[in-house]
Each structure stands twice: as structure tokens, then as C-alpha cells.
Backbone:
């Protein structure tokens, strides 16, 4: 793994960019695991009210938090950053990525609100919120990584 990191996914990256990669990997992996646990039940004809999604969602969220911390530490051990303080470019990239990701949090809140108003069911409300958090994490991370490679647009 250290050779992999030294050949491109760690060498020459800022501390913040490495953290963005970790966040992206954890978000994609966590959501894939959650889908692999819940989707077969949904597609298999189990009534929505009987799908045991709450423990799966809580475990995935908890595991994602722990995995992010542990992976961040491991990345810094394998490929240490010269400086852990972000500069102006890091702050601009973070701001851009968070604006993109924040839009999906708002969309998720609005859809969950509409579902709640029309009594859409706890399963759908929780999963819409979770989906939008995952989309927010993925799209904000991708936006940041593109900005690290191409620069911040000057709109």
C-alpha cells in the first residue's frame, strides 16, 4: 500500500487533499455496504415496515466515523505531510466543495420534510436524508479533488 501512495495518491498532496481522498473512500464504501444490506430486502419483497434498516444505518455511520479517523492517521503515518495547516488555496477549495455538497443536504432536508408532511414513512424519510448526506460527501469530495488538479474556478 505504501508504494501505491508514494506513486501518486499521496506523494506531493497537501494534508487537506489526502483527507478529502479518505473522506471520499469512506463515503463510497459505507454507502455500498449499507446498500448491500438494505437493498436486497427492499427488492426481495420484504415490506418496508419490516426492513431492519435502523441498526444497519447506525452501524455504518459509526463505522464511517471510526474508519475516517483511523484511515486519516494511517495515511499520515505512511505518507506524512510536511505541513498540516491549510493555505489560502486549501480554504478556497474547501469552500467550493462544501457549497456543492451543501446543496444536497438542503435538497435532502426538503424532500424529507415533504415526505414527513405527507406521512411518507420513517424508512423513506431516513433513507432520503442518508442518501443526500452520502451524495453531499461524494460530490463535495469529487469537486475538491477536481479543484486540486485543475484549480479553483474564478466565476
Residues:
Amino acid at each position: 500500500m505504501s508504494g501505491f501512495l508514494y506513486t501518486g495518491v499521496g506523494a506531493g498532496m497537501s494534508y487537506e487533499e489526502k483527507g478529502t481522498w479518505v473522506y471520499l473512500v469512506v463515503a463510497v464504501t459505507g454507502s455500498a455496504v449499507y446498500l448491500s444490506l438494505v437493498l436486497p430486502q427492499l427488492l426481495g419483497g420484504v415490506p418496508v415496515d419490516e426492513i431492519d434498516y435502523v441498526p444497519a444505518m447506525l452501524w455504518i455511520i459509526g463505522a464511517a466515523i471510526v474508519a475516517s479517523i483511523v484511515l486519516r492517521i494511517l495515511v499520515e503515518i505512511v505518507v506524512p505531510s510536511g505541513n498540516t495547516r491549510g493555505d489560502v488555496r486549501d480554504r478556497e477549495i474547501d469552500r467550493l466543495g462544501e457549497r456543492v455538497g451543501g446543496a444536497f443536504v438542503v435538497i435532502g432536508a426538503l424532500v424529507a420534510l415533504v415526505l414527513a408532511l405527507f406521512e411518507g414513512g420513517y424508512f423513506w424519510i431516513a433513507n432520503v436524508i442518508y442518501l443526500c448526506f452520502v451524495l453531499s460527501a461524494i460530490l463535495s469530495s469529487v469537486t475538491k479533488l477536481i479543484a486540486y488538479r485543475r484549480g479553483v474556478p474564478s466565476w
The chain has a mean pLDDT of 89. DSSP finds five helices and no strands in the chain. The radius of gyration is 18 Å.
